[in-house]
């Protein structure tokens, strides 16, 4: 049973205020995301990383989604059941591709923060996280498309949506994945550089931004899914409006939580503020375990404060560690 009745004007007509708000969101979101891409684009002399690529891909998929649904909802073409059905399928696919890209970035972030000594395909946690998240997500996406709602009213309004049977599993997968990957990222931060006064100030900022960003992202996801349950099928213009707003806010949150916590002048060797590696920090000579531990701690902190352009580096296997005298 829908909470909002089927004869509600919101459902029966394409309302002018909604049209104006939808266009304004697009006019604000698209230039803003373009700025995000430019700001996160690797500077000259720095190398690309998987994390950087995925971060930029998140912005690109959000931009494609917002552009596509804006064109679909504001193109005054003859509305047919086939077009309405296509609008629903395109919305679900593009929206979930953008969400999947964000999850892939979070998986990479959790991998990088552990200072990996093995490649991704040799890291069980990375493989399990990828398979354990994307297999269920692809499955619920396919089910949502199969059991979609899409039809045209007599007032020439396209009604689209998903049945509650598919909404709840999709929301559960997205929320569980977001929460797990955020906690996995925060775990090393809460264990490093702690003393009687707690975390270092820059690390504390990273923890706070990540926690707030995760909470807002999950609330946005819940809000969009709840809005779909209010109707027995939602008018396409309203569905697109809420999804565009969610995509823009998600991109803004991603830009905020990946903001470097170290100033540019704090970096050396011409590396971008987000890319401090292990090379050059440890020589090929014999070092003590305490010296190696201190070097790892210093580089770990720099890596955390400079994500997402930090890249995974391996401790050279030729190094020998002398016992502490």
TrEMBL record:
Q: Is Membrane among the key words of this record?
A: yes
Keyword tRNA-binding tagged: no
Keywords noted in UniProt? Membrane, Transmembrane, Transmembrane helix
Spans through the membrane? 20-39, 51-74, 86-106, 126-147
Q: What is this protein called?
A: G-protein coupled receptors family 1 profile domain-containing protein
Name the source organism. Zasmidium cellare ATCC 36951
